[in-house]
Amino acid sequence: MVRWSEATEEFVEPAVDVDEPLPRRRRGGRKLGFLLWVLALAYVAYAVVRVLSLETTAFLIGAMAVTPYAAAAGLLLTLITVGVGRRLLAVVLLVVTFSLGALMTPRILSEEQPQATGDHVRIMAANLRLGHGDARTIVDLVRSQQVDVLALPELTPAAVSALDRAGLADALPYRVFNARPGGDGSGIAANVPLRQIVLIESSILSQPSVVVDRPGNDDFELTAVHIQPPLEAEDVNTWRRELAQLPPPTPLERVRILAGDFNASLDHAAFRTIVDHGYSDAGEETGEGMTPTWADWPLGPPLTIDHILAEARCAISSYAVFDLPGSDHNAIMAEIVLP
After folding, report:
1. Alpha-carbon distance 319 to 290, whole Å?
2. CB-CB contact of 50 with 74 (8 Å)
3. Phi, psi torsion values for 297, nearest 5 degrees
4. Would you give the distance in Å from CA 300 to the centre of its chain?
5. What is the C-alpha separation between 329 and 11, in angstroms, rounded?
6. 115, 118, 136, 258: least buried by Cβ within 10 Å?
7. Which of the four pLDDT bands, split at 50, 70 and 90, describes residue 220?
8. Euclidean distance between CA atoms 55 and 243, whole angstroms
9. pTM for this predicted structure
10. What is 2-18 written as a DSSP string?
11. Quick check: 308 and 320 in contact, CB under 8 A?
């Protein structure tokens, strides 16, 4: 009888080459993590500037104008970090994104209006872009929207002629026009008499002010706003100064309304200061505060820089934005109930 003995197998641990490079997947993960942290830090810095109103240069002022887009990009970045398992980073980004979102939420929610009992007036503002805004469109809007007062930044002599040929003088026969070549001019037209007054001592671009002589005691003051844009470093102080010089509300006197191209959005501290003085932004009050009023691709994405501000004692009945061929701005219209 033959006996078989089982051989015992010895386990030999394979040698490890310490010089072997890390797998590509791990190295790629580290690079992605580093990139995400860099983007997150930039996003947090952006949010800090916006929340603390630290825009001090032309670059930062321009950056604040795209806050809605930055918030959307932050949400996308948050989703990416969740997808790759960076939980701590995702929490940080989510908090920052919600903070920016909270600042913009009032713009999409209509606000309760004061109990104003005066006349309803319909105000329109339309930047003509060097006078090239389509005159026929403007006059058609004036008639269809039953506009009472029209503010026209960048009004040129040629634009005045085109508007009159289209019938503006018949629809709004009273006017205070300071037409100039290029983009410096401005004007106000109305269906009731106007009296020009001085509410702004000086500005780079024309900003006329008038008393709108309505029947009874419902006179009000209106300024056609056109603020110098802060495109260059030397324009920043002018932009701040001109925004600060806009006439404040006068609660015990005639109602004041500001309408036109502010070259500023609700994400700019200098503009928010004007509103905080006692004005209501018609777009924000009606939940349309995110509707763009300007776009000029590829120079800039759609932004909300045209506004109609009425004293807070007025009620905003409606607000709308209309396309204006020939201009890089849209026309905006608000129906305001006087107190």
Report:
1. 12
2. no
3. -65, 140
4. 12
5. 79
6. 115
7. very high
8. 15
9. 0.89
10. PPP-PPPPPP-PPP--T
11. no
pLDDT tier at 32 (50, 70, 90 boundaries)? confident
Residues 6+ apart with CB under 8 A from 130: 154, 156, 182, 183
Look up residue 230 and give its two tokens.
């802060």
Among 288, 339, 281, 332, CA closest to 315: 339
Per-residue tokens: 246: 């806009």
The residues that bridge with 185 in the sheet, in sequence order, are none
- Of 203, 162, 210, whose CA–CA distance to 185 is shortest? 203
List the structure tokens of 212: 């709108």
Alpha carbon distance 44, 91 (integer Å): 12
Neighbour tally for 171: CB within 10 Å: 19
> Tokens 């503002």 — which residue?
125
Neighbouring residues of 89: CB distance < 8 A, sequence distance ≥ 6: 36, 37, 40, 81
Encode pLDDT of 118-160 as tens digits: 999 999 999 999 999 999 999 999 999 999 999 999 999 999 9
Under the banding of pLDDT at 50, 70 and 90, the label for residue 294 is very high
230-288, pLDDT tens digit by residue? 999 999 999 999 999 999 999 889 999 999 999 999 999 999 999 999 999 999 999 99
Residue by residue, DSSP assigns 7-69 as PPPPP-PPP--TTSPPPHHHHHHHHHHHHHHHHHHHHHHHHHHHHTT---SHHHHHHHTTHHH
CB 256 within 8 A of CB 249: yes
Helix-strand-coil split of the chain, %, nearest 5 = 35, 20, 40
The CA distance from 113 to 120, in Å, is: 14
Joined tokens for residue 135: 């005159």
**Lowest mean pLDDT, pick from 7-16, 85-94, 175-184:** 7-16
d(CA 262, CA 306): 6
Q: What's the pLDDT tens digit per position in 108-120?
A: 999 999 999 999 9
Strand partners, 280: 310
